[in-house]
Design goal:
With 212 residues, the chain is α/β, with parallel strands linked by helices. The chain folds into 3 domains: 73 residues, Winged helix-like DNA-binding domain superfamily/Winged helix DNA-binding domain (Arc Repressor Mutant, subunit A); 68 residues, Periplasmic binding protein-like II (D-Maltodextrin-Binding Protein, domain 2, 3-Layer(aba) Sandwich); 44 residues, no CATH class. It is built from 8 helices and 7 strands; from the N terminus they run αααββαβαβαβαβαβ. A 3-stranded parallel sheet has the order 4-3-5, sandwiched between helices. α1 crosses α3, α1 crosses α4 and α2 packs across α3.
Length: 212
């Protein structure tokens, strides 16, 4: 069975091209790296290098093995991350949300049902939340749209409303509703932590607001 550290050293050699460069970047002496590559060749059972004038470089087989080594290392990292996430999920329930308001709604409810776990929550953008869900970083995420995935249970919970308050004399809006174009450029205050609303406001109200 090939040891992972040998594969990591092989990948370093493939990336940096020479024994001296690879050894420097992975903090080994050149003789130590040379012995490791000799050991790897023995374990694989075929020559992986071309040797000339005390220098070595990967041959065609060595390049193929290096590609497999990258995949193996990536899978090992994924395995470790999944194991840590699953163990963590036994004691901690992580909630990711695209805006702060739903967290205030969900956390008290979940606390009653998950009294044996520590609840933690954070506001992130959609891509970060989806990546975290699929990587078992979150047990639940809250988005502003449904996702099409048969492996996920997606339920609409509630809608969020925003209110804009202004003195009657400064009434800039028709009775039909409030539109971004109506209030763009008007001096106003907006909380800095508003999740996905920040992007929407930035797109529709390019004139800066006073934030707090």
């Amino acid at each position: 069975m090939t040891e992972i550290y040998l594969l990591e050293q092989l990948v370093a050699l493939a990336e940096y091209g020479t024994l001296s460069e690879a050894a420097e970047h992975i903090h080994l002496t050149q003789p130590t790296l040379t012995r490791s590559m000799q050991k790897l060749e023995t374990q694989i059972g075929v020559p992986l290098f071309e040797r000339e004038n005390k220098k070595i470089k990967l041959n065609d087989i060595g390049n193929v093995v290096a590609d497999y080594a990258r995949k193996i290392i990536s899978l090992e990292n994924e395995m470790q991350q999944s194991a840590v996430s699953l163990e963590r999920a036994k004691h901690i329930m992580s909630i990711g949300c695209i805006a702060p308001v739903p967290i205030k709604e969900f956390v008290p409810i979940l606390a009653d049902y998950c009294s044996s776990k520590t609840l933690q929550s954070e506001v992130k953008d959609e891509k970060y939340l989806l990546d975290g869900l699929y990587a078992n970083q979150y047990q639940m995420i809250v988005l502003n749209r449904p996702i099409e995935d048969e492996n996920c249970l997606c339920i609409r919970t509630f809608s969020e409303q925003l209110y804009y308050c202004f003195p009657p004399v400064d009434h800039p809006i028709s009775q039909q509703g409030v539109y971004f174009s109506d209030i763009n450029g008007i001096t106003m205050l907006m909380p800095s932590e508003v999740g996905f609303w920040r992007k929407i406001v930035k797109e529709h109200m390019p004139i800066p607001l006073h934030r707090f």
